[in-house]
Each structure stands twice: as C-alpha cells, then as structure tokens.
C-alpha cells in the first residue's frame, strides 16, 4: 500500500489570534500568570469573526478589490449606513484587514488575495457562509444537550434555497484547493471512462477530471439544494453532453452503474455509520471490478486535533453526524469489496486525507448480502 505524507509546513490558523499578534492586549497573557482580563481575547475573537462575516456578507472586501474608496462612496456602493461603514472599517483597520489613508479605505493586500475574486481562490464565499453558520451555531448549546441538531443542515437548505447556494459556493472554494491533489493522485488509463460523483455539489471535481480525461463522462448526484449553479457551470465549460446532474437523495436514488471511477468527497462525515456502510456496499455494486473509489475526509489519525475536534463539534450542531477514523473507513471499504491502495495526507493536514481504493476483480464481498439494500432494484 502506498502511504504518502506531504510536507505539512507551518499551520496557518488565519484569524486565530494569539497575544503575539497584537490583537490581544499583552496584559492578557503574561507567562503562566493568570490573565487579568480573561474575556478580552474571547471578545476580540467574537468581534473579528462577526465583522469578517459581515464584511463578506455586505460585499465590503469585493467592493475594495479594484482599489481604495472613500467612506462616502463605499457607503453608496454597499447601500449601507455611513455610521455602520465607519464603525466596521475602523475595526477592520485596527485588525489589519483594511488600510486607511485620510478619507480613503483600502484592502490590505492579503485581504484582497484571500477574500475577493482577485485572489487565486475566493474565500470571501467562506466569509458569507460564516455569516450563516454564525446563526446556526447559536444552536450549539441545544445540540450539546440533545446530542444533535433539532433540524439538520440539509432540511434548513431545503427550506431556504439561498443557504444551499452559499454552502455550495464555499465548498467550491474548498474544492479548488483540493482538486490539484485529486488530479495528481489518480493515474487513469487513456480510454472511455465513466465517473460517478456522489455529493458532487458545485461540480468542480467532475469538471476538472473530465477536462483532464477527454474520454471521460460523468454523473453528479446531490440534493437539489446543492445544485443551484452546477448545471450553469457545466454549460460554461461546454460539458453538458459529458456531465449529467441528478438532484436526489443519494441514500435512496438510482445512481446508474458500470463506473470506472467514483468520488465520495467530503460526504462520509455527513452520513451516519450504517448509511456509509450501505453506500459503500452499493458502490461495490456499481463500480466495475478494477475500478477506483476516492474518498476525501478528515480521519482522526491524520487530522490535527484542534481542527478535528472543532469540526466534530460543527457536525454535532449542523448534521448530527461525525467523522470516521481511517481504520473505520478502510474497514467499511474492505467490507464493500474495495482494497485501499493509498492514503494521501494533504498539506496542510487540515485539507484532509484522500483514500484511494480499488474494487476487487471478483464480487466476493457482494455475496451473502441483500441486493441493493435500500437502493432501487434494477
Ligand atoms: C461537504 S459537501 C462536499 C461537496 C463536494 N463533494 C466537495 O468535496 O466539495 C457535502 C455534500 O454532500 C451533499 N449531501 C449531503 N447529504 C446528501 C444526501 N442525502 N443526498 C445527496 N447529497 C447529499 C451535500 O448537499 C453537499 O453537497
């Protein structure tokens, strides 16, 4: 088995403020001496997250992406109140995200690079999503008391379509970060190939794989709420005749069959254990012997603990599901007839891990279980 560990470099917890960043008063942490103002760091982190999310939501950084603006024209452009823009920009100047020169306000260069359409990846979509997640996170105490959410994220999205659109836009940014790793992890033969992208959402993975492999055709299966811009993006890339889109619950719909490659990227943590087991087994039915299944997720063994535990807490509040260990995932894969060939820990490790598994040549794993197990019989 191939096991790759990429150079993890230095963690970049952008937005995590330490005393040394200058955002928390130096008096707050003095060696091991108890902090005289223990709420200061928490308050400033709260205001930082709140104001960054608000800036994303009202389009402040994008408005400044092409150059500085006066407070007056920013106010007009954003159709906001002058007082509101002054207060927000004052704070973001103090926090280092903006610069001020007299009346003129500008993005700091890193702000334009990270959070606007002018950067290599527009993480402004993440700020907009954070404005939504901020509201959902107010349910965290209830989720802790009850062991899960009263309403799952997917139910919220079905009721509020803009939520699904903003989530998919953010997932698209995350996918743009991971797609080069995915492309370099796969060594596929030069022949007609069929691709199944379960939970494929924005379509970035399917589009880029089809671009790399001109004889590949694909199907994306996801909830309608995640597909608001997918068909248009496929059309922009002139791939309508190569990539189909199926809006349905992947736990119960027909996926088709005869696939050479299947993607299950950042979906396992949104499913309960028995659902993943059934899905992997059904993948064992629809992926051809010798075909490849790629799983992307955040297994405990390879994910830094601060991020991993934060992510599990998020899942508790949003979906009521959890992450799975590498041992659990490869166990479920083996049960479904897939042999794990590679584990690729991405860099930084917060990007997650790719598991590359191959469908065994025989269908031994399929013997002795119910055909379909909840999926439509053909
Ligand atoms: C974290 S996103 C990952 C999106 C994409 N695969 C990626 O890696 O960027 C999880 C996706 O799973 C989809 N999903 C969750 N539950 C689903 C279900 N029951 N049926 C179909 N799709 C589902 C969501 O709509 C969402 O698009």
Automatic annotation (TrEMBL):
UniProt xrefs under InterPro entries = COMT-like (IPR016461), COMT_C (IPR001077), COMT_dimerisation (IPR012967), SAM-dependent_MTases_sf (IPR029063), WH-like_DNA-bd_sf (IPR036388), WH_DNA-bd_sf (IPR036390)
Q: Locate the O-methyltransferase C-terminal domain: which residues?
A: 151-338
One Gene Ontology MF term: O-methyltransferase activity
Q: Which Pfam families match?
A: Dimerisation, Methyltransf_2
Q: Keywords in alphabetical order, please.
A: Methyltransferase, S-adenosyl-L-methionine, Transferase
List, alphabetically, the PROSITE patterns matched.
SAM_OMT_II (PS51683)
Q: Which GO terms describe its biological process?
A: methylation
Reply yes or no: does the keyword Transferase apply.
yes
O-methyltransferase dimerisation domain segment(s): 51-101
Q: Spell out the PANTHER family in the cross-references.
A: O-METHYLTRANSFERASE CICE, PUTATIVE (AFU_ORTHOLOGUE AFUA_4G14580)-RELATED
What name is this protein filed under?
A: Uncharacterized protein
Please give the organism: Allosphingosinicella deserti
Show the taxonomic lineage. Bacteria, Pseudomonadati, Pseudomonadota, Alphaproteobacteria, Sphingomonadales
